[in-house]
Amino acid sequence: MIPFNKPCVTGKESVAVQQAITSGKLSGNGAFGKNSVHWLEERLDCEKALLTPSCTAALEMTAILTNVGPGDEVIMPSYTFVSTANAFALRGASIRFVDVLPGTMNIDPEAIEKAITTRTKAIVVVHYAGVSCEMDSIMSLAEDYNLFVVEDAAQGLMSTYKGRALGTIGHFGTISFHETKNYQCGEGGALLINDKNACKRAEIIQEKGTNRSQFIRGEVDKYTWRDVGSSYLLSEMNAAFLSVQLDNAEGIYEKRMKAWTWYKTGLQQLETQRFITLPEIPNDCRHNAHMFYIKVQNLAERSKLMEYLKQNNIMAVSHYVPLHTSQAGLKYGVFVGEELYTTPESEKLIRLPLYYGIEKEEVNHVVNHIQKFYQQ
Ligand SMILES: *Cc1c(COP(=O)(O)O)cnc(C)c1O
């Protein structure tokens, strides 16, 4: 059986976790946590990074940092994971879902502009499959209308847009270290803060609304409740696991990219014959091989192909059900503008098995079965 995903484990994680255990410091911001933060700040070039229990938690922090509340509107794609919207719905904001572009499944900058009202506070972009949104247009819109930009870069570690790391272009960026992502520690995430003025507040929000971080650094002699916040720290054992993955980021990247390229080469002919469509990687983007997806003609064909692959022990999966069609999406948000692509394109999309350590034979096996399916 070829599974859809296998969590990436390089083999050296258990040693680091054991070290964390014997260090006697198991809560957040221990030595491994600091190392990982340092890696993120240096490698990605951001003002400040904080490790969080998940990307979901980091998104919740951005919803607090952008001061959105009841009556405010936040614009985002409908084609995304629930956490992107949920974080802002939790603050009482109303979600304005807009369309994506079919080539990348990323938010359409023109649809954003049409959805802006006097109540708009923030734009949340999602870099789908680790391929960047059109950040120049989006940042210039944000400047024109004085809006915050949050980048949900959950899938985007090691990807860039015009040489800049994803998550470091908007005011805030969020990363996921969930086991389904390229770099993982079971559950984990990071908040990237690019706005200098927000760093101090972000630390307070992360420490349950207290200035405990300043206290630990010896900057104040006691810590007190300063703001709203929650427990948004990553445990040191997870940070230890993560630090090994970050130290091997290049090697993990290369292996995934190889597999991605095997798919791309192997399926090219079916695209030329117009049976399927392959993902578009715009020139400004370096991606991280987070995902390999294909698009077929329609929903019925997708069901048939997925079933055919399953019968051959290949686990290929669909992806997001557009949020504006979901029960909570209808309650907390509304789709704004014309929906040209979100639902129809999401119904054509199939993600193929791709993980650290997938063998060339396995990729070829998947490719051959897709070819066979279209020969029938
Ligand atoms: C995975 C993912 C999340 C959630 O990440 P967690 O770390 O599991 O909370 C949010 N947004 C997107 C786009 C994702 O792919």
Question: Care to give the gist of this entry?
Answer:
The protein has about 375 residues and is of the alpha/beta class.
Structure, explained:
It is a single chain. With 376 residues, the chain is α/β, with parallel strands linked by helices. It has two domains: 13-247, Type I PLP-dependent aspartate aminotransferase-like (Major domain) (Aspartate Aminotransferase, domain 2, 3-Layer(aba) Sandwich), CATH 3.40.640.10; 249-375, Aspartate Aminotransferase, domain 1 (Alpha-Beta Complex), CATH 3.90.1150. It has 14 helices and 13 strands. An eight-stranded mixed beta sheet has the order 1-9-8-5-4-2-3-12, with helices on both faces. It has a three-stranded antiparallel beta sheet with strand order 7-6-10, with no helix packed on it. Strands 11-13 form a two-stranded antiparallel sheet. Helix 3 (55-65) runs parallel beside helix 4 (82-89) and helix 10 (249-272) packs parallel to helix 14 (360-375). The protein is globular and about 75 Å long. The chain starts with 12 loop residues before the first helix and ends with a helix. It binds pyridoxal-5'-phosphate. Pyridoxal-5'-phosphate is lined by residues 54-56, 80-81, 83-84, 126, 152, 154-155, 176, 178, 189.
